[in-house]
Amino acid sequence: MEVVIVPDATAGGSLIADALAALVRRKPDALLGVATGSTPLPIYEALAAQVASGAVDASRVRVCQLDEYVGLPAGHPESYRSVVLREVVEPLGIDKGSFLGPDGSADDIPAACTAYDEALRAAGGVDLQILGIGTDGHIGFNEPCSSLASRTRIKTLTRQTREDNARFFDSLDEVPHHVITQGIGTILEARHLVLLATGAGKAHAVAQAVEGPVAAVVPASALQLHPHATVVVDEAAASELKLADYFRATYAAKPEWQGL
């Protein structure tokens, strides 16, 4: 996979936003897979600035969710649908009708999972999927030991993941115990995967995912199997990479026109 080391989160967000803008110029109705949480916010902010300046028109872009909590009431401010609408769809001027996501309040959750996988295929597949990485190496909500061939499904969150996400709620008790997540097999079907990781807390997970063996215990290591996967990390998140100097030199020598 391609590894790009940047000075900080702002630089990483700008770099990925430039890649998204280039994609949208090539394909105005591109299907963009988005992640939530604090890590990807610099991406969305940088892309929104380009939209506001007129540098790119994102009005025809389609957006799809990576995951969704199960059981939160419709319109809950921390449902991932609400977060994506607030942080991505509205700032980019995207039509809400083009937004695809799993139904976390459905009576039949397994059927809702299957329906979402089918909807992604019917939409032509994801052109670029943004990913984050958990401190335990998870992507989406595919916790350690998830099948590398898994499809969209319901998952039980580990206590560590619930604690990591508790900052978005008033207390740990309010964090749902279950989510719908795209499976690793579903994620790998996107044409381009871009993972952003920042901070020293992600350094060990990044090193395992990039330089370790492909193993279900580190779900993000599955990106090694993808033909076009890009990992963008700041210096802190790159601190445990044995090949950090090689990655810096390789990207520095890359033709400017090639992009991510």
Automatic annotation (TrEMBL):
Top-level taxon in the UniProt lineage: Bacteria
Entry EC number(s): 3.5.99.6
Protein name (record): Glucosamine-6-phosphate deaminase
GO biological process, one term: N-acetylglucosamine catabolic process
Keywords from the named record: Allosteric enzyme, Carbohydrate metabolism, Hydrolase
Occurrences of domain Glucosamine/galactosamine-6-phosphate isomerase (ranges): 13-225
Gene: nagB
Similarity remark: Belongs to the glucosamine/galactosamine-6-phosphate isomerase family. NagB subfamily.
Gene Ontology annotations for the cellular component aspect, listed alphabetically: cytoplasm
